[in-house]
Amino acid sequence: MKELNDIVLIGRVTLLNDKQAFNKLVVKYQSPIRRFFLNQTQGNVQLSDDLAQDTFIKAYINLSKFKALSSFSTWLYRIAYNVFYDHIRRHQPTEDLSASSIPQRKAETSDEGLSLDLYAALNLLTPHERTCITLQLIEGQSIDRIAQITGMVQGTVKSHLFRGKEKMATYLKQN
Question: Can you tell me whether residue 25 is helix, strand or coil?
Fold first, then answer.
């Protein structure tokens, strides 16, 4: 039913140029997309908001190209994934960080300390590992959907998840 409602809204946008219908899609998906970017950017709220805005602009411009071969949310996450990796290619050289390059600190008892520990652990991961971990553990996506979003084969997604979880577990146990 949820996907049928999305299809109806998409039809209203593409056929009737109904901006309110697109606004309903934005309201429905803005929190998950922003959360995805927050985890990819290790909590950078401003950058996450900018990337989310870029995602919705690209989705609006390309909405007529949506073929409903997957759910709208999968298509939207694919756009978000591409927006994020375009940003990385333009602005940040990617490096594989080792656990020894992250300063060790004692874990704090507050929620903020836990959040900082989680972002530090996510920072240890390669961009692909971080994306897979974020999509599965935080966004609740299945391996099949992660493969559709990222364009990776399922075995590669599983490898990134396994390595990412190992790195994070090691870091969080030490801290």
Answer: helix
DSSP code at position 126: -
Nearest to 55 by CA among 84, 80, 74, 85: 80
Which tokens sit at 99? 């656990």
Structure-token match 């590669």, residue found: 156
**Burial classification of residue 48, based on how many CB atoms lie within 10 Å of its CB (0-12 exposed, 13-18 middle, 19 or more buried):** buried
C-alpha distances (whole Å) from 154 to each of 36, 69, 73, 143, 157 are 20, 18, 19, 6, 5
pLDDT digits (tens, 9 = 90+) for 44-63: 999 999 999 999 999 999 99
Please give the Cα distance from 65 to 101 (Å, whole number): 44
- pLDDT higher than 50, residue 29: yes
Q: Which pair of tokens denotes residue 135?
A: 């999509």
Q: Are 78 and 148 in contact (CB under 8 A)?
A: yes
* Letter string b/e over residues 9-36, b meaning 16 or more CB atoms within 10 A of that residue's CB: bbebbeeeeeeebbebbbebbeebbbeb
**8 A C-beta contact, residue 80 and residue 52:** yes
Express each pLDDT in 97-120 by its tens digit: 444 444 444 444 444 555 667 888
